[in-house]
């Protein structure tokens, strides 16, 4: 597990009033699509946005979700759709 992070703007009334450090963890997850396993990476982009990225049949899929599991599920469903 790799730990990293980035600065995000702190908003108040539509204005950026400061910044804070958001630590994120990049996690490798194995998902199954049509009986084949794929390894994807899931990481937190902001407080409520998670990104899942990985290759499916030689093409990169990058999706987001409101949680780590939602992003991974969205990646799986996108890959299943492309596999039809």
Could you describe the 3D structure shown?
- The chain has 84 residues and is of the alpha+beta class.
- Helices cover 18% and strands 67% of the residues.
- The protein has one helix at residues 68-82, and strands at residues 2-12, 15-33, 36-46, 49-56, 59-65.
- The chain is built from one helix and five strands.
- The mean pLDDT is 85.
Mean pLDDT across all amino acids: 85
Which strands sit side by side, in order, in the main sheet?
1-2-3-4-5
Kindly report how far apart the N and C termini lie.
33 Å
The fraction of residues in strands falls at over 45%
**For the report, how would you describe the main beta sheet?**
5 strands, antiparallel
One letter per element, helices H and strands E, the order comes to EEEEEH
Question: Low-confidence parts lasting 5 or more residues at pLDDT below 50?
Answer: none
Share in helix:
10-25%
Radius of gyration: 15 Å
Shape: elongated
Helix-strand makeup class: alpha+beta
Strands, count: 5
The DSSP helix count reads 1
């Amino acid at each position: 597990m790799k730990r990293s992070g980035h600065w995000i703007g702190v908003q108040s009334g539509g204005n950026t009033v400061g910044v804070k450090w958001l630590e994120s963890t990049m996690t490798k997850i194995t998902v199954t699509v049509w009986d084949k396993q794929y390894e994807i990476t899931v990481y937190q982009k902001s407080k409520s946005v998670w990104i899942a990225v990985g290759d499916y049949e030689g093409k990169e899929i990058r999706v987001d979700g409101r949680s780590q599991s939602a992003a991974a599920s969205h990646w799986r469903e996108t890959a299943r759709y492309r596999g039809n």
